[in-house]
Amino acid sequence: MLAVGTRFQQYPTAEWSLPLPHKLIHVDVDPSVVGRNYPVAQSVVADAEAALRALTASLPDPAPDIHRARSEHLCAGREAAEGALSVIVANAGPDHTSICTTINRHRPRDGAVVRDATVPAYVWGESLLSVWEPRTSIRSTAAGIGPGLPLAIGAALATRRHAVLLQGDGGFMLSVGELATPDFAALAKSFGAGSHHVRSAAAFESAFVDALAYLGRR
User: Fold this and answer.
1) Alpha helix segments (H runs only) across the chain
2) If you count Cβ atoms within 10 Å of the first and of the last residue's Cβ in the chain, which end, N or C, has fewer?
3) How many domains would you assign to the chain?
4) The pTM is what?
């Protein structure tokens, strides 16, 4: 098995229960990734494109029946992918499937999709949101919840394109401060808390006295 640019993460491998061949060749530009989750027979630390071009150039001329074998292999792969996708669609349910279809229909093909390490991402978003262009699929390399918003803001600023953020499990609140210029008084009111917006030290006293009396009015 030749594995290129994969980290064999927890959820795509069903918590590392996915059986892989013992003769595993793992190619990745990051040496810390190679062999981290599955033992390898041969490690190759290299850029994916450079490694595949060198490998292709070193292969012998194909056998006469290679095209038929390749066609059969591709058909089997497509059937397996369709079967796996049907399982994901069934688990996601009609609403989440419809949401992903809508996002795919309207978002720019070269716009980034950022997936936080949350249920909507690894249960259905990573499989149902399409990736059409290089460097448009972004997620944290860690399993901690919360970095999605700053990643999406960075992607949007860098590309000047819309970035779609898929987040849940309370992850948005862990980095809500990244919105940079919120109206904090309005933010407090949105959570049902009393708040005041004062513009001078002189105005602070009455607002502070009112804040101390707030609990008594509830």
Assistant:
1) 48-58, 66-106, 119, 126-128, 148-159, 184-190, 201-212, 214-217
2) C
3) 3
4) 0.66
